[in-house]
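Dear Dr. H.,

I hope your travels went smoothly. While you were away I took the liberty of generating a structure for the chain from your last submission, since the lab meeting agenda had it listed for discussion. I wanted you to have the full record in hand beforehand rather than looking at slides cold. The sequence, exactly as received, is reproduced here:
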Amino acid sequence: MAATLHDVARLAGVSIKTVSNVVNDYPHVRPATRERVQAAIDRLGYQPNLSARSLRSGRSGVIGLVLPELSLSYFAELADAVITRAESHGLVVIVERTGADRARELAALSSPRMRMTDGVIFSPLGMGQEDAALLEVDFPLVLLGERIFDGPVDHVTMRNVEAARAATDFLLASGRRRIALIGAHPDEELGSAALRLRGYEEALETAGIDVDRALVRATTLWHRANGADATREMIDEGVVFDALFGLNDALTLGAMRSLQEAGLRIPVDVAVVGFDNIEEAQYAVPSLTTIDPGRDQIAQRAVDLLVQRIESGKSRPSRPATETASFDLVVRESTPA
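The corresponding predicted structure, in token form, is as follows:
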């Protein structure tokens, strides 16, 4: 039989009200009493009645996470970081995948499943700046990514331009001058691809090097196959390059495969840098130099902002916060020592 509040109270030698205060994390409980109650909870394996708690508080203890896809390691690792941070707040996370489709992203914002949560962390790829007003929803929402800026909700993003410029500067400092870029989206004015391309171009301009459009390769998706195909096409065309910057690690790992198939040595013939610092990057052969965009920091701040909004009782902030994560260049074997 499952343990009850009465059982915990009896074992800890306190009132049922005190046990309830500890379970609900009320602050006005003496530390020694809290420790005794928690020890009893642990010993008995007591599980709070979340349904009853939800009815009393008006909260479900659940938040939503809406992502474009989970097949890309970056988003899978982001989801894991969000879940870990949410657990520290006593929250459960449900994940919804949109396939980067605008219609599905809009549907997620009005989804009954999402509306059963206390709030949502939302990472769109299909929506754009013109959709900012559609984020005016009646539940707490934190926005991720680079598709919409200056919207009506809290926003956590990364330093795409500065990070891409740092990656390109690093390659230039190693003596490379013909730096290929994989993953451009030519028609995109705002988004990760456009911002990272801007950083690449700024670094070349500062170094006095003209951008050679033969070195800038577009891909619709940012998967390994796309990086491999774009790199193979460039090699087949006889384009000469001594470095390669992939706009995410998946593209870059695919590019490395094509380089090696062509007999090009990394980093002797071609130095390679990626972006995202997914776990696979450190186990590639050679291991991949990459930008760590602060994924864990993004997850933690997104959850913390959402919790603040939930606890405030207001669905939208009067002054939306915009927070930008710091980044690091993680140097490994794919670039010269």
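Two observations you may find useful: The chain has a mean pLDDT of 92. The radius of gyration is 24 Å.

With kind regards,
E. W.
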